[in-house]
Design goal:
By secondary structure, the protein is α/β, with parallel strands linked by helices. The chain has 19 helices and 10 strands. Helix 1 packs across helix 3.
Length: 448
């Protein structure tokens, strides 16, 4: 048990505050040091320390392990949320954003709608979105819907996956929706019905890191991103970095929702601001998008027009940069065309086959994506991301044994790579981060 007289001095709290900003992006100025101290003491007790000062010095003396990062996230992030939180935001969704996206999809066959709740906490927000979509779109089962919900807190993610909530989570929920989409559970709680639960996919993601947007974690070409009441807890430069990455993660015409208190962090971004009562809507307009595309392609070098250097050029790396840029901007057909053009004369390029598979997967061409991944692994059996992607596809097709085989291979291969090393064609994911993702998937599966 933690000693009751454990008080962290101001010098130690200042260093811990800097550490938390670097690792989690969370801002703890001196006015919030009592809160930081409590969180550190709770994390210390969870990890078996009897002295918070000893734990603090351990945190500061060496790189954090995944277990240490998870403990900090669990005790320093705010876990306060409820269904249909902030009436203004849901009014904007129901009366502006969802209708505009649905109308844009009309006449194009099967509708496609990609949504990301970027800090989902215990799941009330993404389940609220799923319920709203079910209420508004009668033929939702015919849509190609992605509803991704991420958070840094593994404890919150486990609660979200369980989908069981107490009465306090329903304080803004109409009885009609509560009775329709939830069933009674033990201890006076309620569980979301399977029809809604299966619409949402949960995953661990740290918004302070550089690993998004990326096809590897499905954070590209989003039509709608919700990042509400999150940026207010970030250090200012970190918050602006998050907004910049979220912008790149959106399709042209996409929407970002933040809370009114977060306006300072988005007002200087390329988004067009749309003010609604109780909500700040950020719109990625075509005009702003065109300027960003031009700037991005000039910065990242198009392999078709760049001059030949004096040293040999790794064309696969440059192809990956171009394809990633196009995919980030929502131009999946263009990205696929570049891959196919390259593979016409470079059929033995395993990473290019992997890139092609990820684009096909995003487009819903699962069978063809699977074939491209198998070609990539035939050419390079050690391509860790191809094993990881094929495990996802195999599981979605009910091939559980095959999925476990590829996930196990990905785990072993990732463990052999230095944790800080960036994986090629991953959009900034390190080997260590991939190992964390695999471990979390295993933990969530065991907890289910």
């Amino acid at each position: 048990m933690l000693q009751t007289n454990n008080i962290l001095d101001t010098q130690l709290l200042a260093r811990l505050s800097d550490l938390v900003v670097r690792v989690l992006g969370l801002n703890f100025p001196p006015s919030r040091w009592p809160e930081l101290s409590r969180g550190i003491q709770e994390a210390a007790e969870e990890l078996g320390f009897t002295d918070a000062g000893e734990y603090a010095h351990a945190l500061l003396s060496s790189p954090l392990t995944t277990k240490e990062t998870d403990a900090l996230a669990a005790h320093l992030t705010v876990a306060e949320t409820y269904f249909f939180r902030d009436e203004g935001s849901f009014d904007a969704l129901a009366n502006l954003i969802i209708p505009s996206i649905a109308n844009a999809m009309s006449g194009k066959g099967k509708g496609c709608f990609r949504i990301w709740c970027a800090a989902c906490c215990t799941g009330e927000e993404p389940y609220s979105i799923a319920i709203l979509l079910r209420e508004m779109i009668p033929n939702l089962n015919d849509w190609d819907l992605t509803l991704l919900a991420t958070d840094i807190n593994p404890c919150a993610l486990r609660a979200a996956e369980a989908g069981i909530f107490g009465k306090w989570s329903f304080r803004n929920t109409p009885d009609r929706l509560k009775n329709k989409y939830f069933r009674p559970a033990p201890d006076g709680r309620y569980q979301v019905i399977p029809e809604i639960k299966r619409l949402v996919r949960f995953a661990k993601l740290n918004l302070a890191e550089e690993g998004y947007p990326s096809p590897a974690n499905n954070t590209t070409a989003m039509d709608l991103i919700l990042c509400r009441n999150v940026l207010i807890y970030f250090e200012a430069s970190q918050a602006r970095g998050v907004v910049e990455r979220l912008y790149r993660a959106q399709a042209d015409g996409g929407w970002l929702l933040v809370s009114p208190a977060e306006l300072p962090y988005v007002s200087t971004s390329p988004y067009a601001m749309v003010n609604r009562p109780g909500a700040i809507l950020c719109h990625k307009t075509r005009e702003a998008h065109a300027a960003i595309v031009s700037h991005t392609l000039c910065d990242k070098a198009d392999v078709r027009t760049m001059p030949m250097p004096s040293e040999p050029l790794n064309l696969t790396v440059d192809l990956g940069v171009l394809v990633q840029s196009l995919a980030d901007q929502g131009d999946l057909p263009g990205a696929l065309a570049h891959c196919d053009e390259w593979l016409m004369t470079n059929k033995l390029d395993a990473p290019a086959h992997y890139l092609r598979a990820i684009i096909l997967q995003e487009q819903g061409s699962i069978e063809e994506a699977s074939r491209s991944l198998r070609r990539a692994l035939y050419l390079d059996p050690h391509l860790v991301l191809a094993h990881f992607a094929l495990s996802h596809i195999s599981r979605s097709r009910g091939l559980i044994a095959e999925a476990e085989k590829h996930l196990g291979t990905a785990r072993c291969l990732a463990a052999r790579i230095p944790a800080s090393e960036l994986l090629p064609q991953s959009g900034g994911v390190t080997a260590g981060r991939l190992s964390e993702m695999i471990s979390l998937m295993t933990d969530l599966k065991m907890a289910a």
